[in-house]
Amino acid sequence: MHVQSLFPFLALLLVSVLVSVVGGVPMPPSPRRPHQSNLYQYKRLYRAFLQPLNLYLRSPTIDAPIPSAHSNRGTFNPLYTEMLLSDHPAYIHPLTADRLNPVLLRMTDLTNRGERRPPSLGDQRKFSPLFPFFFYSLLPLTVLFLGFWIGGFVSLFEEATMGAKEELQVPLHPKNIKAQHTYPLRQLLTKYTRLLGMLENPAHLERLTGLLGVEDWRRFEEALEVLEAENELLKVAVREYAQTFPRFDVAA
């Protein structure tokens, strides 16, 4: 057999050997995206809620000391955890939800008064021809009285917002969220569910804000945005990040 006739065969054999050798050599792994922290989604949500409110901070003003399970004051010591929840400003306190009691009481009072609202002008005209005189003479006092109560509601609403802003920037900050405990967060979330649920009722909302001027309505809307932001972050924190040990209550 001539060498020229063997050349194609030898070339093909050489290529086959090279392919098998190269295929057997382990190749360096292809670059992968770094593993995202399980806080990634919460950080995005946190920024999305707080930046429009001008409340976003890259770092909290106070860090929450997460108890270490390897220390003698760790998470396995319920008394230490309870002390942090009660005394440390970077934690939501078990009684934090009580700050919503004044505005909830005012809202309940005003919406219940709405059920006993006097008849309308059209209905009252059927009862007495003198009613228009009394109605128009007393109308300024009626509007002033209701305006005082509704203005008070907005003031209480804003007071509740002040506490919410502090909680958004410190305890609910992404760097502190895993240190929180579900029990006080759920207590606060329960109050928010009640408060925001009342505002979803058009009749209640009208009774609470129907007489507000433009400036007071703006105050109300700004406060509501803050409370709604905290409500949404509380839901996520309770579901995914807050600690459940120790259990301070069966319902926690």
UniProtKB/TrEMBL annotation:
It comes from the Eukaryota. Keywords: Membrane, Signal, Transmembrane, Transmembrane helix. Residues 1-24 form the signal peptide. The chain crosses the membrane at residues 133-157. This is Transmembrane protein. It comes from Ustilago bromivora.
